[in-house]
Amino acid sequence: MNNTFSVTLSGSDVASLQTPLLVVLLPSDPTIPATLAELDKHVGGAISAAINQRDFRGSRDEILFLSGVEGGPRRVALLGVGATSAHSWRRAGALAARTALKLGTGSLAVAGADFSPAQVESLAAGLHAGAWQYLDTKSPPPEAERKAPVASAIIAAPVSPDSKTALANGIALGTGVSLARTLGMTPGNICTPDLLAATARDVASRHGMKYTELDRAGLVAEKMGSFLAVAQGTPQEPRLVAIEYSGGKAGEPPVVLVGKGLCFDSGGISIKPAASMEWMKYDMSGAGGVIGAMEAVGQMKLPINVVGVFGATTNMPSGTAMNPGDVVRSQNGKYIEIINTDAEGRLVLADLLSYVRRFKPAAVIDAATLTGACVVALGHTATGVLGVDQKLVDEVLAAGNASGERGWQLPLWDDYSELMQSDVADVKNAGGRWAGAITAAAFLKEFVGDYPWVHLDVAGTAYSETDLGFIPKGPTGVPVGTFVQFLRTRCGN
User: Fold this and answer.
1) 493: pLDDT confidence band, cut at 50, 70 and 90?
2) Percent of the chain beyond pLDDT 90?
3) Mean pLDDT across the stretch 429-439?
């Protein structure tokens, strides 16, 4: 993760900013705001000419480079925001930083109209996203071909207590998302259950959170037969991690975030096709989202009690691996028939959802790259959202929409639970070809305690198989934004 990246505010005249790249952000059908009038003069009226001649229209992701100038910014680029929303400003900030990254300028400034505190927050988070790189497992190019990483950015906005707070929140969110993306991008032989646990331990230590970790012996003591069934095929130690943040009133029920942490998923005995199996290193994105959210929560110091929980292991075929037809006993006492060993994430989550009852949660939200069926249903645009507490579902959907991580509710009627009935056990872990995202949630529902619960299937949104322009292909950081926005709304932050 780019730990040295910094974002600051500057209330000085834009035309006098000493920066190698100034990116001017303008919405659709732009006009020149008063804040940019002096800059337009500085570049010989090039901005107004580009707008008046319709050479630049402010469309989303549109970029127009102007000629270099003497004094002040060395390069000026116009970047279209499109229709404005919190997500559009975050996207524009990310694209601005990626532009600086491609040019190798090392730093940049962004300007526009007088950015509101909300826009400052979005821009700060977006700049973090665009500056992010994963270089840990790459050899550096020849010195003559190297480009400087983006180390710093300036947001040209009025400096006030509100804008300073917004900047700090944007940095916190950006840092949390970048942490989740770095964990996701790390190869599975490096991003092991031990690494996920160590990263969570570091977050807890830096922010004064209580940290609990269970290894294989601890899972046995907790009678987590469902989780252990997945872990029995690998020599790596499984890990159950709980991080407790106490920012709210003492004794106030916490919100619990739960994540699936399959550091690599081969499918086990029900092995996956070889093509694209390398993408299964992203099967820990739910756990990465929990860790990233707890990092953001710690930085924001939110006035709410939160517990982040994840289960980490790998799903491998071996002489000790679980087999189709096996029956295991979960922590809450229900017996599970294993129909498909590639439906392993729900086996881990089953015991986690039982485990979190001890926290007496106000709400539980789990996130998992759970089913390919969800990708078939919703593509890579929307997260699948399922639950039986409609009030909580609506809260989660609103949080996702506000954060730019849009979700779509799928039904979770009792009819779907009938598809999970087993001939030899209380429930089976796969319900056949149809409605796979829904039947997976119906399985999870069997292990939910007496608390409001929502399930997020992020299989289509936690990573992208193509370059999206504002971020490269790979991990997106979903569901960090949804988690954090939900918590902020809950505590009125």
Assistant:
1) confident
2) 95
3) 95
Measured in whole angstroms, how far is the alpha carbon of residue 372 from the centre of its chain?
Answer: 18
Radius of gyration of the chain (CA): 24
Active-site entry in 181, 239, 346, 428: 346
Both 480 and 374 in one domain: the answer is yes
How far is Cα 340 from Cα 269, in angstroms, rounded to an integer? 8
CATH code at position 102: 3.40.220.10
Separation of alpha carbons 150 and 49, rounded Å: 30
Summary mean pLDDT of the chain: 96
DSSP codes joined into one string, 393-457: HHHHHHHHHHHT--EEE----HHHHGGG--SSSSEES---STTHHHHHHHHHHTT--SS-EEEEE
Residue 92 lies in domain? 6-138+147-154
Average pLDDT over every residue of 294-312: 98
Q: Is 272 a catalytic residue?
A: yes
In this prediction the pTM is 0.97
Same domain, 335 and 252: yes
Cα atoms in the 13 Å half-sphere on the side-chain side of 205: 6
245 forms beta bridges with: 306
Q: Under 8 Å CB-to-CB from 415, ≥6 apart: which residues?
A: none
Q: Cα 346–487–311 angle (5° rounding)?
A: 25
200 or 433, greater pLDDT: 200
Q: Which one of the listed residues 57, 60, 201, 272 is annotated catalytic?
A: 272
How many residues does this entry show for the chain? Answer: 493
Does residue 9 have a pLDDT over 80? Answer: yes
Q: Smallest Cα–Cα separation from 22: which of 78, 93, 64, 84?
A: 78
What are the tokens at 229?
């069934």
Between 433 and 430, where is the model more confident? 430
Query: Are 352 and 238 in the same domain?
Result: yes
C-alpha to C-alpha distance for 126 and 140, rounded to whole angstroms: 26
The neighbouring-strand residues paired with 25 are: 79
Query: Domain tally for the chain?
Result: 2
Q: Is 391 a catalytic residue?
A: no
Cβ atoms within 10 Å of 384's Cβ, excluding its own:
26
Q: For tokens 């997500």, name the residue.
A: 87
